[in-house]
Amino acid sequence: VHRWKGLDLSQIPYINVVKHLTSACPNVYSISRFHHTTPDSKTHSGEKYTDPFKLGWRDLKGLYEDIRKELLISTSELKEMSEYYFDGKGKAFRPIIVALMARACNIHHNNSRHVQASQRTIALIAEMIHTASLVHDDVIDDASSRRGKHTVNKIWGEKKAVLAGDLILSAASIALARIGNTTVISILTQVIEDLVRGEFLQLGSKENESERFAHYLEKTFKKTASLIANSCKAVSVLGCPDPVVHEIAYQYGKNVGIAFQLIDDVLDFTSCSDQMGKPTSADLKLGLATGPVLFACQQFPEMNAMIMRRFSLPGDVDRARQYVLQSDGVQQTTYLAQQYCHEAIREISKLRPSPERDALIQLSEIVLTRDK
Amino acid sequence: MNLRQLLLHLPRYLGASGSLRRLWWSPSLDTISSVGSWRGQSSKSPAHWNQVVSEAEKIVGYPTSFMSLRCLLSDELSNIAMQVRKLVGTQHPLLTTARGLVHDSWNSLQLRGLVVLLISKAAGPSSVNTSCQNYDMVSGIYSCQRSLAEITELIHTALLVHRGIVNLNELQSSDGPLKDMQFGNKIAILSGDFLLANACNGLALLQNTKVVELLASALMDLVQGVYHENSTSKESYITDDIGISTWKEQTFLSHGALLAKSCQAAMELAKHDAEVQDMAFQYGKHMAMSHKINSDVQPFVKEKTSDSMTFNLNSAPVVLHQEFLGRDLWIKQIGEAQEKGRLDYAKLRERIKAGKGVTSAIDLCRYHGNKALEALESFPPSEARSALENIVFAVTRFS
């Protein structure tokens, strides 16, 4: 694993990734998400793990109430739509990471046990930007359910759903501006741009196989990891003047974010829809070839044609699903996710030990083992 | 491909016909009537309006400066232009929006940006010395103010695109295949988001948190305004039961807030004090209100109107007419103007013209025009200030 040090995984073309993985660790195929166990129950600082979600939540009490306060709208229906996903039933994965990162950086910097109000606001903003993009994505994908409930577009129609997304984005931008830090504004603005560019990347496809994998990883970074990476960076900037720390925070968020999405793509094949709160094989139905498909295509080149026609012929989705499940696609994608997690842990371990730092380490492992 | 080229190509993708020589405000008038814009509909003001605008453009320097909307150079948006072609033959509103960007100069990409530039120039240089890199000045306008003008246009255009999303469960068979309409929605959301992301990016580069907050709140206002506009049903022939004060609030959100807050932000960028900022805000607000009422009044004052011409039942003259008449009588009038479930707009127009709604709307338009002129009095006399005054004169003229 040490051979991965300093490597930016997203820069490596697909073929090299596979070569690299197999040479670095010849028995990759025996490793899978299902066999993966946490190596030890002690943190690097020797303390017993607590639940990272509980630890992070200490600074996030009232998160959803506070988000709803940012949505200052007089029109009741528009307000209801904008608040729809801030019902407290989400995992709050992003705010948790952000809150833990804030404390980890503050402790690293001057042993401060205090989380600044502005850092907490970043957690709100991260969740708001994420939600705004979900609302738009659901219209784009014509999705009908999310988190076990109907989507905004299914209840109120596409016209209003798009405006609800815009409204949440504007509220997030106002909150961001009020922090009063131009560097932080630039950092989080990058996320908004990446989210859109990621969506454009998803629209296109590449014919060349190695380009296709790089394209997939770039899309994954922009659509998922950029938000986590940049909000981690933002709280580090607010908490600590050292650029080295900002880079650690960014790299941690980026690597955990990519791992998170890779596992999400795996779960689309291995989980049942009840667990996910959204339909499975959703990506295939949208014509998207994610990690497991791209790996499976190595073993079953006949999948190429299906990928190119975006699984549009009758039976394509089922056949592709079967190919993936017969192949090592799931294991290889999981293995790749593990590599990103190792990288995330390697980065965050550079910070001074703290319960929050260790919770971030644990969180990156939870990302790998989650089943929903 | 720059914006101008992109837009020149768009109509070809869209299958639009008609002259494209007059994309922007150019002095020649010969093709005005072929352009279905406000200017084309109003028989006497166009010459005046064109003159006002072309002179204003000269004042702010190179008129194409903020037309180079940088994001439009990107592959993403050029690709969209190609994709939009697939929608030809459907009734997706994105087509109308895209055509509008080309043809409709009155609602086009430029007016808001132009006003932001003019007011920047009218206010003059900053009283405080700044060393900010954005502070190089061309034609009396800071480059950061030029960026702001562009951002204002980006936000306006993004919402123009987003307001044209269709509800998939309300489609008529005449709209075209479901798949195409879905595709149209997808492209509309993405291009709107793309424009917004570029606006955010431009705002971040201005390095001024107050300006970011102002424009973000303008976006929030605009979204709420568009929501109100969208939620008034065009099919039911029943107007909203709102008085003119509610109408004003909603119209400020949908038509005034962006310009008002952008004008204010332009002053903030040059470090002008709170009083100057407020005057700029007032000018932007009242000019925009006056402008909106003017276009609302057009269907009722033009010498020649075709009988089939419809008008918005939530426009200023109609809302005022309703207020004078009382809700019950108004509903009765609408009922009387309906035949076999279709509204006879010509008949209803005559009823409205017989009442006091139209003249009150004209009064209201002039009231806002005067307020805009009052706000300008605090700026020192200059050709930029005159241009801003002339814009007000043009939108308050009804002859």
UniProtKB/TrEMBL annotation, chain A:
Predominant location of this chain? Answer: mitochondrion
The pathway it acts in is: Cofactor biosynthesis; ubiquinone biosynthesis
Q: Which cofactor does it need?
A: Mg(2+)
What name does UniProt use for this protein? All trans-polyprenyl-diphosphate synthase PDSS1
Q: What family does this chain come from, according to its entry?
A: Belongs to the FPP/GGPP synthase family.
Question: Do you know which Pfam families this protein is assigned to?
Answer: polyprenyl_synt
Signal peptide position in this chain? none
Reply yes or no: does the keyword Heme apply: no
- List locations, semicolon-separated: Mitochondrion
What is the taxonomic lineage of the source species? Answer: Eukaryota, Metazoa, Chordata, Craniata, Vertebrata
Protein encoded by which gene: PDSS1
Q: Which GO terms describe its cellular component?
A: heterotetrameric polyprenyl diphosphate synthase complex
Q: What does the record note on quaternary structure?
A: Heterotetramer composed of 2 PDSS1/DPS1 and 2 PDSS2/DLP1 subunits.
Q: Which SUPFAM superfamilies match?
A: Terpenoid synthases (SSF48576)
Molecular function GO labels: all-trans-decaprenyl-diphosphate synthase activity; metal ion binding
EC code: 2.5.1.91
According to its UniProt record, which reaction does this protein catalyse? 7 isopentenyl diphosphate + (2E,6E)-farnesyl diphosphate = all-trans-decaprenyl diphosphate + 7 diphosphate; 6 isopentenyl diphosphate + (2E,6E)-farnesyl diphosphate = all-trans-nonaprenyl diphosphate + 6 diphosphate
Q: Name one GO biological process term.
A: isoprenoid biosynthetic process
Main function = Heterotetrameric enzyme that catalyzes the condensation of farnesyl diphosphate (FPP), which acts as a primer, and isopentenyl diphosphate (IPP) to produce prenyl diphosphates of varying chain lengths and participates in the determination of the side chain of ubiquinone. Supplies nona and decaprenyl diphosphate, the precursors for the side chain of the isoprenoid quinones ubiquinone-9 (Q9)and ubiquinone-10 (Q10) respectively. The enzyme adds isopentenyl diphosphate molecules sequentially to farnesyl diphosphate with trans stereochemistry.
Which UniProt keyword terms apply here? Isoprene biosynthesis, Lipid metabolism, Magnesium, Metal-binding, Mitochondrion, Transferase, Ubiquinone biosynthesis
Superkingdom, natural source: Eukaryota
Automatic annotation (TrEMBL), chain B:
Alphabetical list of SUPFAM superfamilies matching this protein: Terpenoid synthases (SSF48576)
Which key words are in the record? Transferase
Q: Which organism was this protein described from?
A: Nomascus leucogenys
Task: State any GO BP term from the record.
Answer: isoprenoid biosynthetic process
Which InterPro entries does the annotation name?
A: Isoprenoid_synthase_dom_sf, Polyprenyl_synt
Tell me the Gene3D superfamilies matching this sequence.
Farnesyl Diphosphate Synthase
Q: What is this protein called?
A: Decaprenyl diphosphate synthase subunit 2
Query: A GO molecular function for this record?
Result: protein heterodimerization activity
Q: Does the keyword Transferase apply?
A: yes
